[in-house]
Design brief:
Length: about 170
């Protein structure tokens, strides 16, 4: 049986092999994002599955502004477009990353299908997860966790400075 947050997604982009942008009724572009990728963005330092994936993820992060609209999904998202674990729109590590996503959803109070600004998501992740020391409980078995778990306590990253975010936004 699949998780309570799983839904059928109709916005699969076959050219990029990912769920990316959609135009909702308001005609504003929306970036599909798995909740746990909001954590990855906070600690990303240019390492990844491949150089293609790393450049792709770095490009997404560089394009974000506090006002970027995010739609929460637990399917393949914009980041997954260049991930070698993405097998025609299905994650080969689905159960593991779904566990990460569900933890982020539970701790932040965000739900699948919610549309919020990146600034709002950033603030929730900072105040509900990072500031409370919950990161280690969400993804201890992630192959990249050494980056996040061994990083010095940061009040901001280079992207945070560019975006003019404070660490905690409530």
């Amino acid at each position: 049986m699949r998780d309570k947050h799983e839904k059928t997604y109709k916005h699969f982009n076959t050219s990029s092999n990912a769920f990316t942008f959609d135009k909702p009724e308001s005609n504003d572009a929306v970036l599909y994002l798995r909740p746990h990728h909001g954590l990855c963005f906070r600690f990303f330092e240019g390492k990844g599955y491949s150089s293609d994936f790393t450049l792709h993820m770095g490009g997404i992060i560089a394009s974000l502004t506090p006002d970027t609209k995010i739609k929460i999904t637990v399917g393949c998202d914009a980041v997954c477009g260049r991930c070698p674990e993405n097998k025609f729109g299905l994650c080969a590590s689905y159960d593991k990353v779904l566990r990460y996503d569900n933890s982020v959803l539970e701790l932040t109070g965000v739900s699948v299908g919610d549309v919020l600004s990146y600034g709002e998501l950033y603030g929730l992740i900072g105040s509900k997860i990072i500031d409370k020391g919950m990161l280690k409980d969400i993804c201890p078995d992630c192959r990249w966790s050494y980056i996040c778990h061994n990083a010095p306590l940061r009040t901001e990253t280079a992207a945070d400075t560019r975006l003019n975010f404070s660490h905690s936004q409530e």
